Amino acid sequence: MIVILNHYFFRTYTWDYGAYNFAFYDFAHLRLSPNLISRVIVPWDVHFLQDHISFTLPLLSPLFWVMNGMTHSYSLLIIQWGFIVFGAWATFKLVELKSNSQYLALLSVVYYYVLYGRYSSYQGDCNLAILGASVLPGFFYFFEAGKLKASMLCFAFLCLNREDMPLCLIFISLFLMIVYRKDRERFRWAGIFALLSILYFVVVFTVLIPFFEDQNKKFNLFDYGILGENPLKALTFVLTHPLKATQYLFVNHLNDAAFDWVKTSFYVLYGVCGGFLLFKRPLYFLCLIPFVAKKMFNDSPQRWGYENYYSIEFVCLLPLFIFSILAEFKNERLRYGTAITICVISLLLTAVCLKESLNGGLGNRKINFFSSNFYKSEQNVSSIHKLLKLIPAQTPLCASSDLIPHLSERKKIFYYPYTKECEYVCVNKMAHTYPATQQQFNSEFNNLLKSKSWRLLAVTGDVYLFRRAN
After folding, report:
1. What is the DSSP secondary-structure string of 97-151?
2. Domain-terminating residue out of 309, 331, 362
3. Best CA proximity match to 225, nearest among 249, 254, 198
4. Which of 314, 333, 362 is the endpoint of a domain?
């Protein structure tokens, strides 16, 4: 409901959902085309694999032909929802297997769905991290159940999901080696997974990233300046300055006091929501180390806290770990009492966070489904959807931020105000203007109205559709 209504009400945006929809369409047509949306930011062309070394969308792209006739630009949101449900199912199966209790397994699914990170992740609409994190419970379940072929498929998907996931899988594989050290076969497979993770991580940073880079676009997602300029230097820093590195996990490492308590807020929220139980089985922290490290060592403070999708791995792993610990409780009253208590606490804190959440100009409207504002829009959305149908399917188009996700399934689409190569321009004056200022946005719009090169075709509220004059 959240993703469908957000998209219908034009609360999804070019970054990232518009770019994802373009890549999904492009891969389905067996292409790796430049994402022309980026021209409004940089003068050169950038394709999807220059941003993330991820093969998730190419793997999923055949679903474009299965779904697009019915679900159109909603397809990826629905696919992502399917992955989240898969994660919930795998969580249920693993907890049921460990506890032999369907009631505890059901409570683990409740917990999976009431953690705040499940909802804050929708601030970013659709993301590779959400898809990958949802497969983690499946990997753990299939490995625990001895279904090695299924666990290998999950492992392969996770490796190909993002360039940082193999690093995380190294730690998870080491965890499995320790847990199953007396099980010869599973110990061997965990070791194989660890070696493959190391190998693929090295291949990604020494072969794939340099291969897809060019003179204009360099890989810029290794945002860990506090540690070093590349993974090797970062590892060297951590090994040679372990106390300093540990300190950075908890304290603000930027020269801006405004971010002093951001990291603390994350630990407090998820600690109160059941994370404190991990101290009963500290070995689970081994799996979480890489996820905490890539979050807290990052140069961007927006990644440190509990907002957006930057907590999604914890939301998918905590139900597995915490309810596996609860499964060991011999006292049933204590087991179920604790499970119900952390579910209730998590629900209450999620409700508070939903109310207080900020998401650009929308405030908390995008995710706070408790509010009546979530279920309506200030725009006449049905009329806008009718106007968008006037745009021919494959015509080069320029559109504003909230319209591109609906229109990006074409060969050429540009971000307003880049109008040079377009036949149509569709602008919502209520849209976010980034990276242009509001003044620049309005100036370009006024030029469109006055220009003899463009003809105004239709207007609905604040949405204007132009066609290039012959």
Report:
1. HHH--HHHHHHHHHHHHHSTHHHHGGGGSS-HHHHHHHHHHHHHHHHHTT-HHHH
2. 362
3. 254
4. 362
Residues whose CB is less than 8 angstroms from the CB of residue 338 and which lie 6 or more positions away in sequence, other chains included: 277, 326, 329
Do 288 and 142 fall within a single domain?
yes
Among the ranges given (152-161, 223-232, 302-311), the one the predictor scored with the smallest mean pLDDT: 223-232
The verdict on residue 254 lying in a domain is: yes
* R_g (Cα) of the chain, nearest Å: 23
Cis bond before residue 214 (omega within 30° of 0): no
DSSP per-residue codes, 250-298: TS--SS-GGGTTHHHHHHHHHHHTTGGGGGGSGGGHHHHHHHHHHHHSS
Confidence at residue 358, expressed as pLDDT on a 0 to 100 scale: 60
Neighbouring C-beta atoms of residue 143, cutoff 10 Å: 25
pLDDT tens readout for residues 398-448: 999 999 999 999 999 999 988 888 999 999 998 988 888 899 999 999 999
- 12 within a domain of the structure (yes/no): no
Write out the H or E segment, with its range, that includes residue 248.
Answer: helix 242-248
Backbone angles phi, psi at 366, to 5 degrees: -70, -30
Q: Please report the pLDDT score of residue 359 as a whole number.
A: 55
Supply the pLDDT for residue 221: 74
Mean of all residue pLDDT scores within the chain: 94
Q: Which residues of 66-86 are buried (b: 16+ CB within 10 A; e: fewer)?
A: eebeebebbbbbebbbebbeb
pLDDT band at 224 (very low <50, low <70, confident <90, very high): very high
191 and 277 part of one domain: yes
Cα–Cα distance measured from residue 398 to residue 401, given in angstroms and rounded to the nearest whole number? 10
In a domain, 30, yes or no: no
Residue reference for tokens 């891969």: 27
pLDDT digits (tens, 9 = 90+) for 33-44: 998 998 888 777
Q: Are 428 and 442 in contact (CB under 8 A)?
A: no
Average pLDDT over residues 357-375: 77
Domain of 407 in residue numbering reads as: 381-468
